[in-house]
Amino acid sequence: MLKITPYLGILVLIVSIGGLWYPPLGYFMLLIFAAIFLISPFRGRWFCGNLCPRGSLADFWISKISSKKKIPGILRSLWVRIPIFLLMMGVMGYRISSVIGTLNAFEKIGMIFVTICLVTTAIAVLLGSYLSPRTWCSFCPMGTAQNLLGGKRYQLQLEKDKCISCKKCEKVCPMQLKVCQIETKPDCIKCGRCVSVCPKDALKF
Ligand code: SF4
Ligand code: SF4
Ligand code: SF4
């Protein structure tokens, strides 16, 4: 986690609420897409745990109202996540292509991005407060894309001889991963919380 990570959540509110009055704010989403596709082939889901504004919103805002229940396993399945990814890309592509060439297309496309940001944030807040803060991040299309592009990159390393199975790492993991039980974790968001909390320095990147 970076020093700036806790403050990034405000950007979600600026884009999804401010964008209703000033649609070009929606183009901020393109910056997010670009960062995701540049970083993930080398660092997997590092963006999710360090730079994503909605991830920050989940960890530092939604967590305050969350009932912190278990994230249903079905939401982590690629059989569910890939169709959600394709659906969202399809809807976005269709809506953008339908306004290209019309009057005020620049603002209209910006508003499409704003709407996507607003709707997905609303879902993230609802699921995050009812279940666990990062529930949305378990099946978010951009998280799925990062999983597929670089899920095996920059893996967390466990020194098994140092581990005392205290499970403190698993208690702090925002993605509710089996930190010290599974070696390859393509949905690890590289937040580093498990590394910080381990009393035996058994974890590192
Ligand atoms: S899964 Fe999606 S919303 Fe969550 S941190 Fe990653 S990109 Fe952001
Ligand atoms: S916190 Fe460290 S010692 Fe405890 S279970 Fe996790 S890796 Fe092992
Ligand atoms: S395994 Fe560690 S670094 Fe990865 S998401 Fe969980 S707490 Fe963060």
Provide an overview of this structure.
The chain is an all-alpha fold. The protein has one domain. 55% of the residues lie in helices and 2% in strands. The chain contains 10 helices and 2 strands, in the order ααααααααβααβ. It has helices at residues 9-18, 28-43, 46-50, 53-60, 78-99, 105-130, 135-139, 141-150, 168-172, 193-197; strands spanning 157-158, 203-204. The longest helix is centred in the middle third of the chain and has 26 residues, at 105-130. It is elongated. The structure holds iron/sulfur cluster (3 copies). One iron/sulfur cluster (SF4) binds at residues 158, 163-169, 179-180, 198, 200, 202-203.
Keywords:
single chain; 205 residues; mainly alpha; two-stranded antiparallel ribbon; 55% helix
Low-confidence stretches: none
H-E order: HHHHHHHHEHHE
Number of helices: 10
Percentage of residues in helical conformation = 40-55%
Task: Name the bound molecules.
Answer: iron/sulfur cluster
- Number-wise, the strands total 2
Calculate the terminal CA-CA distance, rounded to whole Å: 13 Å
Main pleated-sheet profile:
2 strands, antiparallel
The gyration radius over C-alpha positions equals: 18 Å
